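Appendix B. One record, verbatim.
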Amino acid sequence: MTKFSDLALSPKILEAVEAAGYETPTPIQKGAIPPALEKRDVLGIAQTGTGKTASFTLPMIQMLASGRARARMPRSLVLCPTRELAAQVAESFDTYSRNIKLSKALLIGGVSFKEQDALIDRGVDVLIATPGRLLDHFERGKLLLTGIEIMVVDEADRMLDMGFIPDIERIFSLTPFTRQTLFFSATMAPEIERITNLFLSSPARVEVARRATTSETVTQEVVQMKPSRRDRAAKEKRELLRAIIEREGEECRNAIVFCNRKTDVDIVAKSLQKHGFDAAPIHGDLDQPQRTRTLDKFRDGELRFLVASDVAARGLDIPRVSHVLNFDVPSNSEDYVHRIGRTGRAGREGKAVTISLPADEKLVGAIEKLITQDIPRVGNPMRAAAAKSEQPKRTRDRKKSQTSSLEAVGRRSGRTVGMGDHLPSFIAMSFKERAAV
């Protein structure tokens, strides 16, 4: 079995890895770290939750340990699609570089330019940024990319989904041709393949999972629902979500609830709160401090339900998410893979439940085609609960019907019919009839 000590990492980095509680590298780490340390370009393809971040942070720290950054000229650049993923990468650098003095800066939206400019002016070894904010600094003349030695593109397929590919191409053109490039993605769309062919030089290709696969540790199911009326669909869907949570019981320790639209994120979060569930929303329209506080509470176990748009679907490393609940079927099949990748991480078991309306069947079929497996359909827990509550009512109605029938017979025969029909005839007699016996 390969250990981190077999990967030619320095003792100081190995000490930090051990302090973080890791002993054995994941397959993507075993495949990507050695060629990265040889200063080769690397193309890493692996599903989310497989340890891609350490695949580039560890070799980068070792290679940047010697040297000095100049003002406004960072030595390395890590591009991330979302603020949350960028912040997580920054945390990884803090964790693994604890024994090596490296400076870093995080360029993301929601933080003042002045604070970020001050960091860049001092010179940084590692610059972690989202494409838009990076180009904002460049356009303002506050940043030069001609000193980049190592460039990393993380979650490249998400960059494609978010329309960042033109920005990525421009950023590549602003960096030196001699840079080392580490390129990571969960899937390889044709557009991404074109980018890698254009900007990577004879890369070491490390592919540790079939394209668009889901983790075997995640149990998947689809709950089908048919609204009673079109105008009640949204309300009944929220009722079904609560029924699913109640069905899962204590097994649902925490969960990320995914919605396709930001407006639905807020509505679903408020609905859960109204019915006594500990929930909070997170999406792109919230300011960064609020998003950070919400994520920290969820990560620390202070918040049970995180209601999210796809801004949270990729890259977030929250290791103990028990459930992913898809309030909406994602319109992009690959988003399904990334959503449910939030649970069942690091070998743990997880569960993903998707609510599907009749109009969603084509989308579910596309997902099954992508992941090359059928997702089991399960019974609607609301129907089961309704059937259970209906059973005593049916019994009561049946008894009532029987009583009514007996009363009708009594009215026709001119005598009272009821309990006496199944009692001894003597008890049912009148006093006059008894006296005559």
